[in-house]
Design a protein that fits this description.
Blueprint: E1 3-6, H1 16-29, H2 36-40, H3 47-55, H4 64-82, H5 92-103, E2 107-111, H6 117-123, E3 132-134, H7 147-156, E4 163-167, H8 170-179, E5 182-185, E6 197-198, H9 205-208
Parallel strand pairs: 1-2, 1-4, 2-3, 4-5, 5-6
Helix pairs in contact: 1-4
Bound molecules: 1-O-phosphono-alpha-D-galactopyranose and magnesium ion.
GO biological process, one term: carbohydrate metabolic process
InterPro entries: B-phosphoglucomutase_hydrolase, Beta-PGM, Beta-PGM-like, HAD-like_sf, HAD-SF_hydro_IA, HAD_sf, PGP-like_dom2
Cofactor: Mg(2+)
Length: about 210
């Protein structure tokens, strides 16, 4: 393998809770039940697809325009929460693993469904760190479709079979598998039947990826 493509939310940084808080405020405002279990299904899924999952529990049908307004409102709240993150939110483990993999000669990329990817990378001080950043602003279909990872591989000028995708979401491992990538899955993603390497923590990558 020549390259590693990292998911962002839940792998490089812990923005998951902010997504949860922002979606929870929206769900509460329209009286729709929302909890951590529903939130787990949103991992790796685009903003509009996430909203559709939340609205499964709604008794009311929302028009496309109403949904656009709700999604925009969620994003406004999420971005407000993101204002509080900084380089202090980049863990030592993530920093050390990225540095070591870079030293070992691997190309490093981001493959995230989030349209806020560039902003988050800037906030945590990784704006110029990756060889490629493929995100929600560049794709038509979010995970479990492999588009975001295929785009990253293309930017890196690598074939999928030369890349490892690192994920915390089932939809992310599914996308990696569909695209012909190897995958390392942590948390729930470690349980996917097609995950190549189930891992406990990010530093396990240093065992998998040779020096
Ligand atoms: C979107 C969704 C989130 C989450 C991320 C992927 O982020 O809204 O719920 O699934 O994609 O990690 P964003 O709103 O930042 O584009
Ligand atoms: Mg994730």
């Amino acid at each position: 393998m020549n390259a590693i493509i990292f998911d962002l939310d839940g792998v490089i940084c812990f923005t998951d809770h902010y997504h949860f808080l922002a979606w929870k405020q929206i769900a509460d405002s329209i009286g729709v039940y929302f909890d951590e279990q529903v939130n787990d299904r949103l991992r790796g899924v685009s903003r509009m697809d996430s909203l559709d999952i939340i609205l499964e529990k709604s008794k009311i049908e929302y028009s496309l325009e109403e949904k656009r307004i709700l999604a925009e409102e969620k994003n406004k709240r999420y971005v407000q929460l993101l204002n509080h993150i900084s380089t202090a939110d980049l863990s030592d483990e993530v920093k050390d693993v990225l540095q070591e993999l870079c030293k070992r000669g691997y190309k490093l990329a981001i493959g995230s469904s989030s349209k806020n990817t560039k902003y988050i990378l800037k906030q945590i001080g990784l704006e110029h760190y990756f060889d490629a950043v493929s995100d929600g602003t560049m794709i038509k279909k979010s995970k479990p479709d492999p588009e975001v990872f295929l785009k990253a591989a293309e930017m890196l000028q690598e074939r999928p079979e030369s890349c490892l995708v690192v994920e915390d979401a089932l939809a992310g491992v599914e996308a990696a598998w569909r695209g012909g990538f190897f995958s390392a899955g942590m948390g729930e993603a470690a349980t996917h039947k097609h995950v190549t390497f189930p891992i406990k923590r990010l530093s396990d990558l240093l065992i998998i990826m040779k020096e």
